[in-house]
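Exercise 7.
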Amino acid sequence: MPFTETRTGDLLLMTASNITAAHAFTTRLGGVSSGVYASLNLGYKEGDDPKNVCRNYALLGAALGFDPEGLVFSRQVHSDAVRVAEKNDRRAPYAPIPYEADGLITMEADLPLIIFTADCTPVLLHDPVRGAVGAVHAGWRGTVRDIVGTAVGKMTRAFGCRPADIRAAIGPCISKCCFETGNDVKDALEHVLGDESPRYAVLRGDKYMVDLKGINALLMERAGLKRENIEVSPECTSCLNDKYWSHRVTKGRRGSQAAVITLKGKPH
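Solution. The predicted structure, written as tokens, is:
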């Protein structure tokens, strides 16, 4: 199976078989939050008790072997901005973030990159040849701006990566079965996809059903990744809203899941 469920303590995490860097796509299961945030809420701007959120980070850090006080966050704004993360970008949950970005890349060891979703598309990148990783938040606005292509291009320029060496994992997100949109999304997709747009935005009644996973996979292929190096989760956050946070299902009263990746340094 391209994606595997892993239980670590009470946490239920998803991992991709093609990425050997330490990583996970979290679910909503295994944390300490309660009420509408039950239970592994990692969103620190959603209204949950900060003590519970910090405890959830501690649980995730213990499971994946990173310091929960030393993550690289970003203020996600549905852009195509990708930041090269460095050690001085480390911070604890709730610490102010002085920059906006929807993608993070690094060659620094032991520097966990984290992005958040609750229907948007999480993408993790790993170049095992150059030793580089990336984490990308691709909502539909970031998708039509080709943020995944921007991330691949920046890994190429900043780190000397070859796109053909990069592995990508597209995690659980709202899928074509549930992502119902209007003409605004369809028109934006036509701008970036051209004649291929009808494959990924299918008319159903007076709405369009959009395949964000397929679009991001196509854009990464256009950026030079090999199709066999792209793994795609079959799971839909809207259909499986008991396992994942879904913004649409909860109408915004929810927590957030995360995708996290880090290069492990050599043991001392």
